[in-house]
């Protein structure tokens, strides 16, 4: 079993898509082992998106992700990292297939509803940024 860091971004929370995201995760058979509603502090956002520091969209990305509450989750299941990325769809919603969350609900690359770790090392790092070990049940 694998764990990944999954998140409903501020646009997803504002648009009332938390239930839809949870429904899809649960119906797929994933287990939610950690979950909280939070507003991400700026420093945490910069750490989370550290790989993008210096890129032209970095400031906008940090502003967006700190602009309102997110739902932070740790999701567990078979091949959870890759499976959750598949359910999210392509980063740019214009390329995201119908049936994926981004394909069905997002319109622009700047506000694309959900996040998921992209590799095992990333998952471990991101889970550690957002959750204390005792918050995972
Ligand atoms: P996250 O789950 O948010 O990490 O998305 P991702 O893993 O599919 O994409 P990536 O980590 O490469 O980029 C993080 C976020 O930066 C994306 O979700 C986009 O919102 C934004 N982003 C990435 N590339 C671009 C780009 O070329 N232009 C713009 N405007 N935003 C970008
Ligand atoms: Mg990413």
TrEMBL record:
An annotated GO BP:
CTP biosynthetic process
Q: Which GO terms describe its molecular function?
A: ATP binding; metal ion binding; nucleoside diphosphate kinase activity
Q: PROSITE patterns from the xrefs?
A: NDPK, NDPK_LIKE
The Swiss-Prot or TrEMBL record lists the needed cofactor(s) as: Mg(2+)
Pfam families per record: NDK (PF00334)
| Class of this enzyme | transferase
Q: Which InterPro entries match?
A: NDK-like_dom, NDK-like_dom_sf, Nucleoside_diP_kinase, Nucleoside_diP_kinase_AS
One cellular component GO annotation, for this chain's record? cytoplasm
Q: Which residues form the Nucleoside diphosphate kinase-like domain?
A: 1-137
Among HAMAP family, the record links this protein to: NDP_kinase
Query: Which family, according to UniProt?
Result: Belongs to the NDK family.
Descriptive protein name: Nucleoside diphosphate kinase
């Amino acid at each position: 079993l694998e764990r990944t860091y999954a998140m409903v971004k501020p646009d997803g929370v504002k648009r009332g898509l938390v239930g839809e995201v949870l429904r899809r995760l649960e119906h797929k058979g994933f287990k939610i082992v950690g979950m909280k509603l939070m507003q991400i502090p700026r420093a945490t956002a910069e750490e989370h998106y550290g790989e993008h520091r210096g890129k032209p969209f970095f400031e906008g990305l940090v502003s967006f992700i700190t602009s309102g509450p997110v739902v932070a989750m740790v999701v567990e299941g078979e091949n959870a990292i890759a499976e959750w990325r598949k359910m999210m769809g392509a980063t740019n919603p214009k390329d995201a297939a119908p049936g994926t969350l981004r394909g069905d609900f997002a319109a622009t690359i700047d506000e694309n509803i959900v996040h998921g770790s992209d590799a095992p090392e990333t998952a471990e790092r991101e889970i550690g940024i957002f959750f204390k070990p005792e918050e995972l049940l």
